[in-house]
Structures are given as structure tokens and as C-alpha cells.
């Protein structure tokens, strides 16, 4: 019989907890603390010593950088401005000039015509939108050009809305709405009119607890329980197609593979992990692996489909799935995920499927489901 010391028991408990086996974890924690009531402190001292050294080095470097930053003037308080006051402040920057820190090194931007600077901003908008933002906050003059020039917001609207796959793509209706509802105020339209984002992925992480049943010879008074965790991913394309996946794999493993043409059977890294896992299962005395065939299961099987969006921000997707006769139809509402994160979340409306044989539509239970939040991915394009 194997003998475990207190630190081994604590480590096993931590591993059990990380995979959701909370009943087993609590049992091992109890055994570890029974041997030593300070086992958690000793575990940290033993296994996180190197981590603490690395963190302390990072803190030291951060403090060294702060020493080079001049102290803030205590008499200067942050501005508390409403939208009207902020616009007045930005407009006051129109008379600002480019002032070099070193007179011997003049600012080259000051020699460029206004139209050329607008062209630079236009290129940044198209190639990498965050670069436009970072460039515009470089100085007061660029703040004025980058944020108050109406052509900039017009270009942003063009990039955002012309690529949307609307249910009704009537051009006359859009022109009428732009004039009647937003009066050609493109900044206001960008703030109020929902749109899907393409240069990234929408992620939903679902976590909930599930009770199990006692084993036949169990003397436990309580039911075992475990933590269930999985992810849902959605990636949308401007051509009206989309990709979806439900998996236990974390974003760092899924995001590089979430593209058209990906085949799990051609993924050497994943298939290698599968073989290693099967070998571990066989060593434990069983021949059947719960992930014995990645291509036949949905661990990293990417499903494709189509989508459409309404002017009000209602999104409906129609995708294939693990059951051939079903079409899985999800409905969402585009909402804000915070004060400064506009149109960044897909809020669940319906999780359903359509039976193509019996021609019936049904909805699934979504009590445990979480809304999708957009995460930008630099390598993704339109």
C-alpha cells in the first residue's frame, strides 16, 4: 500500500480540485491537514519558492521604472468632464502646434500637410484599428485630428457596417436611417448601432456544479459533486459564414485552430496528446479512452454554418452539428459589456435546433449558459 506524506496528500487534493472532483479533493485536504495543520503554508514554501523569486524580480524592476517617473503634482486633479465639456476641450486643441522636446530634432509631422496626416490615420484605420487609437493619443494636435475629424468616424462606420451580413441589405433603407436617425453623425451611429466584430473570437466560459450518486458500498452522508467547465467559441466572417465549437479546451489551444479548412485528424500536436492519453489509460488498467477518436467526437471538431444580423442587433446562426439530421440554431442580441466596451457581448436569446427529418423546431435548456464576450485576435482578418 502506498504511503503519502502530508505534502503529497495536499498536492493530490489540489490536482483533484483543479479538474472539478471536489468531493475527492476535500477528502485529501482533510487527510493532509490532519497530519499537519500548517501543510498549506509548507506546500507554498516548497513549490512556489521559485515563483515568488520571479515575482519579486518583476516587482523590483517595476519599482525601478517608477523611480524614473516624475512624481505627480498633488494640486492637479483628474478632469471630470461630461460629453459637452470634453468636446470643448478637444476643440481647443485645434490651435496646438507640434513642439519638439529637442530643438535640434524637429517634429517631422509638423512639416506634413493636414491631408497627409489624415491619409496616415486612414491607413492605420484599415490596417490595424488599435494603431489609429494609439497614434491619435500621442499629442494634443493628433487628438484633435484623430477624434474630431468627421471623415475618420465615417471611415470607421464604413469598415464596421459595410461588412455586416444583414437580413435585409436594402441600400436605400440604410441611407435613409443614417440621415433620419443619426443625421450623418457617424460617431453617434458607431456608439448606438450594433455590429458584429470579425477580427477576433466570441468566447463563453460555462462553469457549474453537478451532483452525482454514491457508490454501492459508500458510507458517505453527502452526495459527491464535481465542477463542470467547458467553453463555447464563435468566429464570424464578413461573407456570412461562421464557425462554432463547444469544447473543454482553453482559448490558447483553440484560437490558433479556429479557421476554415482545419481538420482535427491532421493536427499532429493534438493527435500526439491523444496517443499519450490513451497510453496512460491503458497503464491504469482500462482499454477504453474517453477521447479515443477525436475526429468522431466533438473535442475539437469545428462546425460551420451561416448567420444573419438585423439592424437592431439580433443575430441568428444556423450551423451543422454532431447529429446529421439536426441544424443547430442559436439566437443572440448584441449588447455592451461595459461603459467603454461597445457592442462587445452576445447575449443569449435562444439555444435551439431544427429537425430536418420531422421538420420541427425545439429549444434546449440554457440555464447554465453564459453570454459570449468578444476577444480580439491579432492574427485574424476579415
Would you kindly provide a brief summary of this structure?
This protein has about 375 residues and is α+β, with helices and mostly antiparallel strands.
Q: What do you see in this structure?
A:
The chain is α+β, with helices and mostly antiparallel strands and 382 residues long. The protein has 3 domains: 6-67; 83-148, no CATH class; 200-213 and 221-282 and 296-376, no CATH class. The protein contains 13 helices and 9 strands. The protein has helices at residues 6-18, 22-35, 39-47, 49-67, 83-92, 114-127, 129-136, 140-148, 150-161, 171-180, 186-192, 251-254, 268-283; strands at 200-211, 225-236, 241-247, 303-309, 314-319, 326-335, 345-355, 360-363, 372-376. The protein has an 8-stranded antiparallel beta barrel. A hairpin with a 6-residue loop joins strand 5 and strand 6 (326-335). Helix 1 (6-18) packs antiparallel against helix 2 (22-35), helix 6 (114-127) packs parallel to helix 9 and helix 7 (129-136) crosses helix 8. The longest helix is centred in the N-terminal third of the chain and has 19 residues, at 49-67. The termini are far apart. The model is unreliable at 285-298 (pLDDT under 50). Pfam families: FBO_C. Residues 106-156 form the F-box domain. It comes from Pichia inconspicua. InterPro entries: F-box-like_dom_sf (IPR036047), F-box_dom (IPR001810), Hrt3/FBXO9_C (IPR045464). This is F-box domain-containing protein.
